[in-house]
Amino acid sequence: MRRLLVMVLALSVVGLSATACKPQKRTFGEKVQDTFDPPKGPAEKAGRTLDRATDSK
User: Which residues are within 8 A (CB) of 50 and not within 5 positions of it... i.e. 6 or more apart?
Assistant: First the structure.
């Protein structure tokens, strides 16, 4: 019973923090890059998203 309560609490914290994030609007150049050179997997997609979020070039 205690384990279930901890799991529900953890999932609710993660869910609430994920819904608090607003999607970032992509610029025209980022849309063009995603069209002509789409990410080739979840790791590259996550890396590109992280780079854009931190303004790394």
Answer: 56
Say which DSSP state 4 is in: H
Which residue range forms the structural domain that includes residue 10? 1-55
Q: What is the pTM of this model?
A: 0.47
Q: Count up the domains in the chain and report the number.
A: 1
SS3 labels along 32-45:
HHHHHCCCCCHHHH
Alpha carbon separation from 39 to 19, 28, 31, 56 (Å, rounded)? 24, 17, 12, 16
Least confident of 33-37, 41-45, 51-55: 51-55
Q: DSSP class of residue 27?
A: P
